[in-house]
Design brief:
This protein is α/β, with parallel strands linked by helices. It has 22 helices and 14 strands. The strands form three sheets. A seven-stranded mixed sheet has the order 8-7-6-9-10-11-14, with helices on both faces. A five-stranded parallel sheet has the order 1-3-2-4-5, with helices on both faces. A two-stranded antiparallel ribbon has the order 12-13. Helix 3 runs antiparallel to helix 4, helix 9 packs across helix 19 and helix 13 packs across helix 14.
């Protein structure tokens, strides 16, 4: 007796491909045309009805992680419906699809793995980079944006290896929901160079490369090969780097920033959104940008990146470059940075003080403290990127208030357990004079009969619009002028005239805010000579480029 062949039913591609699938929104005519007859229930719902039902299902999930999982499953089934729900409820869902909930999803990535999304590149197989992207079957003009991570410094949770792909996915979701970047023209990428987390290496279910992180020349060669390949295959794409270790992040940007269209959100995005808050604050303080004096407590990559952008803004406002540098003081765990320290990183060295200039400053075990620096330097701006909880003491805040009429104090570290000072304390200790922005969301503060709205220096206010503007202008690189234009555009959206007014715009209007930011970035790219596309009406070009989560007229697109 011959063996009988077994055939299994197939699922039509239009129900499998999340870009084409509309589920029960396919009309009867569309079902007949696409070979879906009898494969769906008879009822036909609109996108709005589907979104209402999906949101109800989402609300039934009992934890934020469960909501994240539900949304990712929806993302895998129906891209348009996913973005409709996300866009309609962006303020509520931003913390679900990105920080902080995505951190928990990353930690559980291997154990909760469902299906792949993105491109996974291993340092053990560098010759596979081009072949991996080729499997997407996308042409040179088909990609606008690629977000990659090596996952060494994920949010506040550190090294999570291949699970960091969820950061790339989440970042791109925000680009689309907040600024209308077309999700069909983006690629999330994991650059898997290993992990130093023993728990992952010992986990039999771990899906990443199973060895410690590769560093040094082999790492650099892998990054260079990645950049050469993606820039050759997709010459119009913006290359976004996310959550790299501090030394690698800075070196990659410094080495390749003038060659490739690179953006590092942890350095440039954080610096630009902080600059936006500072530009708003000086509307109140009345001290011009060129005359600001800045103390940064936390002299790592993020802190120095912010200092670099504020220094650039001082220069563009008329300060001499040397003087602008002299108006910045950096402090780390060893105290004020001075030129006689032997372990200074290259990016810290320009700001290190001449020991002779601070010879008579008080020292504690040989180090010049934050309080002593504030008392002697008399800064107008104090930034915290140290993750040292409580570092901005009452004495420090009072010294700031003595130094300037309206001190600008930004404790930017997160989470709450690591913030340098809570806004309520800063406002109280300064007698209501401090202009405050934080790195965490905090409720309004009541002081002396005034309600103080505290802005959050959330990078989501900036990078979606910056990215969209870079795409629309076809800018060959992301320049300091484009970052400054993005920061100024955000600052221009608020008018802090009252004593408790917020220094940054609300997330509620993020899509409109991103359009305004993108328009300013396009104009700056044209002015700086890096735009390859020069629209006659940048605002109109930006809005026409913004993808909307709607089902198109055609059923095959």
């Amino acid at each position: 007796m011959s063996e009988r062949k077994v055939r299994t039913p197939t699922t039509p591609g239009d129900l499998v491909d999340p870009f084409r699938n509309r589920g029960v929104a396919f009309t009867q005519a569309e079902r007949d045309e696409l070979g879906l007859t009898g494969r769906l229930p008879s009822g036909v719902l609109t996108l709005e009805q589907q979104a209402k039902r999906a949101y109800q299902q989402l609300q039934a999930q009992d934890t934020d992680l469960a909501k994240n999982v539900y949304l990712e499953q929806l993302h895998d089934r129906n891209e348009t419906l996913y973005y409709k729900v996300l866009t309609d409820h962006l303020v509520e869902l931003l913390p679900i699809v990105y920080d902080p909930t995505v951190g928990e999803a990353i930690e559980k990535y291997s154990s909760e793995y469902r299906r792949p999304r993105g491109v996974f590149l291993s340092i053990d197989r560098p010759d596979d980079i081009e072949k991996s992207f080729a499997t997407l079957q996308l042409g040179p003009q088909d990609v606008d944006l690629i977000v990659c991570t090596d996952a060494e410094e994920i949010l506040g949770i550190g090294d999570w290896g291949v699970g960091g792909i969820q950061i790339s996915v989440g970042k791109l979701a925000v680009y689309t929901a907040a600024a209308g970047v077309d999700p069909r023209r983006v690629i999330p990428v994991s650059l898997d160079v290993g992990t130093d987390r023993e728990a992952l290496l010992n986990d039999p279910l771990y899906l990443g490369t199973r060895h410690p992180r590769v560093r040094g020349a082999d790492y650099d060669a892998f990054i260079e090969k990645y950049l050469e390949t993606v820039s050759s295959m997709f010459p119009g794409a913006l290359l976004h780097f996310e959550d790299f270790g501090p030394s690698n992040a800075r070196r990659i940007l410094d080495t390749y920033g003038g060659t490739y269209r690179i953006f590092n959100d942890d350095m440039q995005g954080t610096g630009a959104i902080t600059l936006a808050a500072a530009l708003s604050a000086i509307k109140v303080s009345g001290v011009p940008m060129r005359d600001q004096k800045l103390v940064v407590f936390g002299a790592g990559t993020a802190g120095v990146g912010i200092a670099d952008q504020l220094r650039e803004a001082m220069i563009r406002d008329g300060a001499d470059p040397g003087q602008a540098t002299a108006q910045v003081w950096l402090i780390d765990k060893h105290g004020l940075l001075t030129q006689d320290m032997t372990d200074l990183r290259d990016y810290q060295q320009p700001y290190a003080r001449d020991p002779a200039d601070v010879a008579d400053w008080a020292k504690d075990d040989g180090a010049i403290s934050l309080l002593e620096t504030v008392r002697r330097a008399e800064p107008t701006i104090l930034l915290g990127t140290s993750t040292v909880h409580g570092a901005f003491t009452r004495e420090v805040v009072e010294a700031m208030t003595a130094a300037t009429e309206r001190p600008i104090i930004f404790p930017l570290s997160n989470p709450t357990s690591r913030i340098e000072a809570m806004p309520a304390d800063v406002i109280a200790w300064s007698g209501g004079k401090a202009l405050v922005t934080t790195g965490i969301p905090v409720p309004p503060v009541e002081h002396d009969g005034v309600t103080y709205e505290i802005g959050q220096a959330n990078n989501a206010l900036l990078y979606p619009g910056l990215g969209l503007g870079t795409i629309v202008s076809g800018a060959s690189e992301v320049t300091a002028g484009m970052l400054l234009a993005a920061a100024q555009a955000i600052a221009d959206q608020v008018h802090p005239t009252g004593p408790g007014d917020c220094l940054l715009p609300p997330v509620e209007n993020l899509r409109e805010s991103s359009a305004l930011t993108a328009t300013a970035v396009v104009e700056a790219a044209v002015d700086e000579g890096v735009a390859t596309v020069k629209p006659t009406d940048p605002g109109q070009a930006v809005r026409e480029a913004m993808w909307e989560p709607v089902y198109g007229d055609g059923v095959t697109s």
